[in-house]
Specification:
By secondary structure, the protein is of the alpha+beta class. It has 7 helices and 7 strands, in the order ααααββββαβαββα. It is 38% helix and 18% strand.
Length: 245
């Protein structure tokens, strides 16, 4: 997470957070709901930090002091560098708990008959498909259904009813590896550890840091890399696509 993003997240989240002693604000007007939505969306990104009410109150006070032109109660030169350090520590702490649960789920999946690769990816081939398998440089057209280990759906082209296409070397590592195991017409179930997905930071707000991801993917078409050009892309980057580490 970049420093500028962290600072922005702190400020935006404070918009929706009241001080400890203040009553909860009821948002009614369209204008208020606009600003509330800004705070809520960024607040979702901070869920994994497990902030206390006192910490949320301090964030709110900082926003109010700055917005009202008051002097800062903290030396920003001293505390700005500590923001990233504190966020990183909390994100890693929370993601470790999530990782452990994911590891247990993956190992059970393997015991139930799945195969685990050297990278840590686990899979079951539901249908092998026909012909040559895609290379990492190819573009594939697929349907996919992605869930967390508790069954929560975070993204699904199946639910949207629209197949998607993307270059296989521009997605999370678990997808790049897993889709090369089936041919056209094939279907596979993937259990992807966080190291091959979105790591400690996750993909807020739907994918927590450290999350193990489950996908069922059906492969419809394979287009060779040289032929695919720049025509691929589905616009849905939350599940499989274009993970930027």
């Amino acid at each position: 997470m970049k420093k500028s993003l962290i600072v922005g997240v702190i400020a935006a989240t404070a918009l929706m957070t009241s001080c400890n002693k203040q009553k909860e604000i009821k948002v009614t007007s369209d204008e208020d709901k606009t600003f509330y939505s800004v705070g809520f969306m960024f607040g979702q990104r901070m869920k994994d930090l497990k902030l206390s009410e006192a910490e949320l109150g301090a964030m709110t006070q900082g926003l109010r002091d700055a917005a009202n032109g008051k002097e800062s109660q903290a030396d920003l030169k001293v505390y700005q560098p500590k923001i990233r350090e504190e966020f990183q520590k909390r994100i890693q702490s929370h993601s470790q708990v999530v990782k452990v649960e994911g590891e247990k789920f993956l190992e059970k999946f393997v015991k139930d008959g799945a195969t685990k690769t050297a990278s840590g990816l686990a899979y079951k081939i539901i249908k092998a498909g026909e012909g040559a398998k895609p290379a990492a440089t190819d573009t594939v057209k697929v349907h996919y259904h992605g869930t967390l280990i508790d069954g929560t759906v975070f993204d699904s082209s199946v639910d949207r009813g629209k197949e998607v296409s993307f270059p296989l070397n521009r997605v999370i590592k678990g997808w790049t590896e897993g889709l090369q195991l089936i041919g056209k017409g094939g279907k596979i179930k993937l259990v992807i550890p966080s190291e091959l997905a979105y790591g400690d930071h996750g993909a807020p707000p739907k994918i927590p840091g450290g999350a193990t991801l489950i996908f069922e993917v059906e492969l419809f078409e394979i287009q060779k890399g040289a032929e695919a050009g720049h025509s691929a892309g589905d616009g849905h980057d939350h599940s499989h696509g274009k993970a930027k580490k």
